[in-house]
Amino acid sequence: MKTAIIYISKHGTTEKVARMIAEKLSDSHVSLVDLNDNKMPDLTAFDAYILGTPIYAGNPQKAMQHFCNKNADVLTQKPLALFVCGMEENGDKQQQELANAFPENVCQKAVSKQFLGGEFLFEKMNFFEKMIIKKIAKTDKNVSAIKEENIDKLVSEFQQK
Ligand SMILES: Cc1cc2nc3c(=O)[nH]c(=O)nc-3n(C[C@H](O)[C@H](O)[C@H](O)COP(=O)(O)O)c2cc1C
Q1: What is the pTM of this model?
Q2: Which domain holds residue 54?
Q3: pLDDT score of 26
Q4: How many domains does the structure of the chain reveal?
Q5: I want to staple 150 with a disulfide (CB 3.0 to 4.6 A). Which of 17, 43, 114, 132 is the partner?
């Protein structure tokens, strides 16, 4: 089975998580598709899709929203899993961010939807991002909070479809 993990990443963590998922999908032929490099990949070349975007200020990356809106018909015809990367700690808000990140019809068809945590990488942030995160997270040190158990859940639910 040919699986496409289609993602977008600003500071690199969603890309890292996409690679972690790819490594765990042992029974698939996996292609990693970065929407920053390829805005309209040929979806017909794949049998299943996993989509991932980071959350900034409560919202997914616009390129992922655009991609989903353009391709919802094709994406919902085949096995599909969705994930977001973010540092929100409140479980209800994590679920809100996840639900808000993808169009409703795409969400409904997904066999797995997971909040996979994230990282604060200060060397990748611009001046304003550093200011915001220092204030909100009360730290100026890098933090890694990738939820490997949720990655395993996504992979397991996706492989059971
Ligand atoms: C300026 C800024 C705003 C952020 N806002 C949110 C947010 O609203 N919710 C959330 O869950 N995470 C938020 N995050 C955390 C990012 O989603 C996290 O750093 C993620 O790992 C980034 O993924 P990327 O490296 O693929 O871009 C924010 C991070 C920054 C730097």
Answers
A1: 0.97
A2: 2-118+148-160
A3: 80
A4: 1
A5: 114
